[in-house]
Design brief:
single chain, seven-stranded mixed sheet, about 350 residues, alpha/beta
């Protein structure tokens, strides 16, 4: 069946809901890339059966390398910068600081010494360095071709491509991590089923993804920074994700919400800006792009705004930790285990 919107018009391609299997969607609203300037027009579509939200047109796995290689800002990232970020990850002060700042929403922090960890969508490779510092062995998969330069410089085992390529043959993993990844995958239910085949006996999966039931999503509406169109293809609620996981043969063994304070600072700044389709937003510019003449021209006005946001940080810390305790934080951290051996 072709998907249809409220006006009855056929969408660019059929959608299949990974949560319930439904194929009929209603257009919730139009959307575009408000960060990096992708010129395309998209819709947020709501499954008529279960309410799950998807981005349409739905991209394919083959679209992702070009999308991230062209628009994501990792092309200017230095391997030395990545290596410095991993220093001290195992220390007690670092653990406390991650909790305070809301940056413990990463699956690698739960790895145990001696375990084999696979990070699907490992980004810059920082998670692999941190897992190694915590005593584990680490492998990664990443669609962005820019990461190969970083992985080579740091000696990391990263496959450029997809889990569907069957990388690292013969290996099974005690922990498979997907940090802010499942929402980027066109068919996340298929990926979860494939992940089960790569788990060692007793293995577990930890996924982190934006939470559409969060406080910041509710108050920000269309300006919520974690819609992140078109890079986020799926927009999960807690209940929808649990339903999908069960359909894929998993049980949810734990879940919590974590709100990075930097996300909140960015959200407050995003409220003040009006994005334009096809143009990169200054808020998301890299440090190199924001330096020099652009910063000088902004002068004290930009500096004063930044100082104001920094002054708000203590209140944001307290507020976000309360939200997390109430399960209303901006990202979900979910641990899954197979219901039975794959």
């Amino acid at each position: 069946m072709r998907s249809v919107n409220q006006a009855g018009a056929s969408l660019a391609q059929p959608l299949d809901c990974p949560v319930c299997g439904g194929q009929v969607f209603d257009t919730w609203r139009e959307a575009f890339d408000d960060r990096y300037g992708h010129p395309g027009a998209f819709n947020l579509e709501r499954c008529r059966s279960c309410g799950h939200l998807m981005t349409s047109p739905l991209l394919s796995e083959s679209d992702l390398p070009h999308l991230y290689g062209t628009y994501y800002p990792r092309k200017n990232l230095s391997p030395d910068t990545v290596a410095r970020q991993a220093v001290g990850v195992a220390s007690v002060p670092s653990r406390w600081m991650r909790w305070i700042m809301g940056t413990d929403n990463q699956g690698q922090y739960g790895v145990r010494p001696g375990e084999k960890m696979l990070d699907v969508g490992c980004g810059s490779g920082l998670s692999l360095l941190e897992a190694q510092a915590l005593g584990a062995q680490a492998w990664g998969i990443e669609a962005d071709p820019n990461v190969q330069r970083i992985a080579g410089a740091l000696g990391l085992r990263v496959h450029q491509g997809s889990l569907h390529d069957a990388p690292f043959p013969g290996l099974s993993f005690d922990l498979i991590v997907m940090n802010q990844v499942i929402e980027h995958i066109p068919q996340p239910d298929q990926t979860l089923r494939l992940v089960r085949t790569r788990l060692a006996p007793g293995g577990r999966v930890v996924l982190v993804f934006p939470h559409v039931g969060s406080f910041w999503c509710r108050v920000s509406g269309a300006r919520w920074i974690n819609w992140h169109i078109p890079y986020h293809l799926h927009h999960f609620s807690r209940a929808a994700f649990a339903r999908m996981a069960q359909r894929c043969g998993y049980q949810v063994t734990s879940s919590r919400t974590v709100t990075p304070n930097v996300w909140t600072l960015l959200q407050l700044r995003a409220w003040r800006q009006v994005p334009e389709r096809g143009r990169p937003a200054a808020l998301w510019a890299t440090a190199a792009e924001a330096s020099g003449g652009a910063v000088a021209a902004a002068g004290w006005r930009r500096l004063s705004r930044r100082l104001l946001l920094v002054a708000l940080l203590p209140a944001i810390v307290v507020f976000n930790r309360i939200l997390d305790g109430l399960g209303m934080g901006d990202s979900m951290v979910v641990e899954l285990r197979p219901l039975e051996s794959p």
